[in-house]
Amino acid sequence: MNRKWTLAMGMAATLAICAVVAGGAKAQSSGTPHAGPSAGSQAGERKAEEQFKNIQVLKGVPAEQIFPSMQFITASLGVECDFCHVQGAFEKDDKKTKQTARKMMEMMFVINKGNFEGHREVTCYSCHRGSAQPAGMPPVMTEEPKEALGGPKKPDSETKEYSGPSPGQLLEKYVQAVGGAAAVEKATSRVMKGTIEFGGKSLPIEIYAKDPDRRISFTHMPEGDNVTAFNGHEGWLVMTGHPLREMHGSDLDGAAMDADLHLATHLKPMFSEMRVRGTKKIGDLEAYVVVGQREGKPPIQLFFDEQSGLLVRLVRFGETALGQLPTQIDYGDYRDVGGVKIPYRWTLARPSGRFTIQVSEVKDNVPVDDAKFVKPPVPPEPPKPPAN
Prior knowledge:
The protein has helices at residues 3-15, 48-51, 66-77, 96-115, 124-128, 167-177, 181-184, 249-258, 263-270; strands at 189-198, 201-210, 214-221, 224-230, 235-238, 245-246, 273-282, 285-294, 297-305, 311-319, 324-337, 340-350, 353-364. It has a 13-stranded antiparallel β-sheet. The longest helix is centred in the first third of the chain and has 20 residues, at 96-115. Mean pLDDT is 82; it is low at 1-44 and 155-159. Helices cover 22% and strands 30% of the residues. α6 (167-177) packs antiparallel against α9 (263-270). It is an alpha+beta fold. A hairpin with a 4-residue loop joins β4 (224-230) and β5 (235-238). It contains nine helices and 13 strands.
């Protein structure tokens, strides 16, 4: 798995997040939160050792978490897959770094079990911070301090008692800011066209969404289209020259949310608990920070502009066996489409990279063929060579 493939697949997986607020605030008649795909529809119930060869430390971990866990390691150490693995034969133990990685994972589990009651407080990133070699001593000071050592410290703004709007009030203000639930209920489909910029390149992209809970995007690459899709039950990624990759776990959870055109009004019932964690400066804006807890899933952080009430940032987390992988989406350039304000620009950032989508054209309630959301057949695996 080279860097181009890793970055491209990470980009494709994150593209599914682009519609989180693009649908504005549209309420379903049932008023119930989007439930996403049923557990029985996911192939993630298999254990790692049942799907992959030579699993030792991560036995018992859901198979769907293995690739995200490897991504967590690459992001924490600033390396690529071949730092530990033999290309084309990932199960081999030929590299010493792979043996070391196993010992480090075991050490991390022991530390958390013995000191934090099994809670995952220490991770690979705690020591490595993006370097293959963890820092063993504090660095020397490379510039003059901004204030004298031992001088009075400014109070931490996050320790101030919060006395602002409640989470429910902020979510309601957001719904009203985008135009109100009644205005956006008219949208049953949405087609967006624009560009995606990453690595100094700008490429055309098309995004199609259709109620209920279907969405597909096409990034037009020189060698062919990259596709990210969700049909209400299954999600998949396609990159030219590579086989279709099915979504599982947090990717599937995210795709199910992103395909919901009514997500804004579903946010409140989606959470079992919400709290406001003060405010945070985002660019020139001051934003309220709302943390929403979900049953059995990682929390979501929402950042609402203090003045307009619009959602300017969303942070979500993907579970891995070693830690949580964050995805941050910053929204801007809100414009009116049929009486509803939607962001025309998204900047998406993950540990593996970042990119920006700028929409130039939006059409609501245009015909979108259901055939667009039909999952292509998965090619059968090549037969295994006979054993010698």
